[in-house]
C-alpha cells in the first residue's frame, strides 16, 4: 500500500492564498467580472440590476452600487453601518454590562482591539500577518458610502443582532442629509441570520425567517 502525505495545516487555518485574497476590494473586483460577463449574455434582462448582500456581503454590495452606475436597486441584510471592528468593542462592553466579564477585562480586550487595528494599518505587520488585511478592509464604515448612493436602498436586519444593531441610527443620517431613498425593515427578536432568539439568548434554528425576509425584499424591487 502506498500512502501519500500532504503537508497538513492547523485546524481552522485558512490557505495562504485565500487569506491574501480576502479583502473587500478584491470581492468587488471579482463580482464586477461576473456582472460584466452576465451583461453580455443574450438571456439576461439588463433593464434592472439588483445587487444585494448579507453581512460581509453587504459591504461588497455597497461598493458595487457605489461604483457601478448600472445598479438600480441595493439590498443590505444584517449590515454593520460602521464597518466590522466596532462590533467587537461593543460586544466587550455588553459582556461587562451583563457581568459576564469584569470592566477591567473589557478594558483590556478593547485596548487589545485598538492595537490589532493599528497593526492592520502597518505595512510591515501586514506582510507578517496577512490575516489583518481583512480586518482593515472590512472595517471600513459603510454609512458614508450609503449616503452617497442615490438609487433605492433596502436595509433589513434583526433586532437581536449585535453586528447590525446600530442600523437603528441609520435613518437619522438620511433625515439629516435630506435623503429619501432608504427603505428599512426591522425584524423583531431575530438574530444575524434571521432566526428567532430564545429566552436564553440563543438562536432557535427551527424557526427561521430567511424566506420571509427575502420575499419582502423581492416584492420591494418590483414596486
3D architecture notes:
InterPro entries: AB_hydrolase_fold. By secondary structure, the chain is of the alpha/beta class. The chain has two domains: 16-83 and 140-221, Rossmann fold (3-Layer(aba) Sandwich); 84-139, no CATH class. Helix content is 46%, strand content 14%. The chain is built from ten helices and six strands; from the N terminus they run H-H-E-H-E-H-H-H-H-H-E-H-E-E-E-H. A four-stranded parallel sheet has the order 1-2-3-4, with helices on both faces. Strands 5-6 form a two-stranded antiparallel ribbon. The N and C termini lie far apart (65 Å).
Keywords:
2 domains, 10 helices, alpha/beta, disordered N terminus, single chain, four-stranded parallel β-sheet, globular, 223 residues, Rossmann fold, two-stranded antiparallel ribbon
- Report the biggest beta sheet as strand number plus sense, adding barrel if it closes: 4 strands, parallel
Low-pLDDT segments:
1-9
Fraction of helical residues: 40-55%
Domain count, please report it.
2
Number of helices: 10
CATH class of the largest domain: Alpha Beta
C-alpha Rg (nearest Å): 20 Å
Q: What overall geometry do the principal axes of the alpha carbons give?
A: globular
Spatially, the strands of the biggest sheet line up as: 1-2-3-4
Structural class based on helices, strands and sheet pairing:
alpha/beta
CATH architecture group name of the largest domain: 3-Layer(aba) Sandwich
CATH superfamily membership of the largest domain: Alpha/Beta hydrolase fold, catalytic domain
The string of secondary-structure elements, in order, is HHEHEHHHHHEHEEEH
Number of E-type strands: 6
Global mean pLDDT = 93
**Share of β-strand residues:** 5-15%
Amino acid at each position: 500500500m502506498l500512502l501519500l502525505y500532504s503537508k497538513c495545516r492547523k485546524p481552522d487555518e485558512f490557505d495562504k492564498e485565500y487569506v491574501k485574497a480576502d479583502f473587500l476590494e478584491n470581492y468587488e473586483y471579482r463580482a464586477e467580472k461576473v456582472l460584466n460577463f452576465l451583461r453580455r449574455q443574450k438571456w439576461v434582462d439588463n433593464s434592472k440590476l439588483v445587487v444585494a448582500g448579507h453581512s460581509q456581503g453587504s459591504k461588497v454590495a455597497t461598493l458595487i452600487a457605489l461604483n457601478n452606475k448600472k445598479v438600480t436597486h441595493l439590498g443590505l441584510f444584517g449590515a454593520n453601518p460602521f464597518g466590522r471592528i466596532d462590533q467587537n468593542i461593543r460586544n466587550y462592553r455588553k459582556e461587562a454590562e451583563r457581568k459576564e466579564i469584569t470592566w477591567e477585562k473589557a478594558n483590556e480586550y478593547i485596548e487589545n482591539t485598538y492595537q490589532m487595528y493599528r497593526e492592520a494599518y502597518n505595512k510591515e505587520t501586514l506582510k507578517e500577518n496577512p490575516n489583518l488585511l481583512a480586518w482593515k478592509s472590512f472595517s471600513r464604515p459603510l454609512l458614508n458610502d450609503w449616503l452617497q448612493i442615490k438609487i433605492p436602498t433596502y436595509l433589513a436586519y434583526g433586532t437581536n443582532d449585535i453586528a447590525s444593531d446600530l442600523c437603528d441610527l441609520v435613518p437619522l443620517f438620511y433625515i439629516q442629509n435630506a435623503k429619501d431613498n432608504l427603505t428599512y425593515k426591522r425584524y423583531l427578536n431575530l438574530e444575524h441570520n434571521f432566526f428567532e432568539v430564545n429566552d436564553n439568548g440563543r438562536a432557535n434554528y427551527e424557526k427561521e425567517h430567511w424566506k420571509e425576509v427575502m420575499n419582502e425584499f423581492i416584492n420591494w424591487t418590483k414596486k
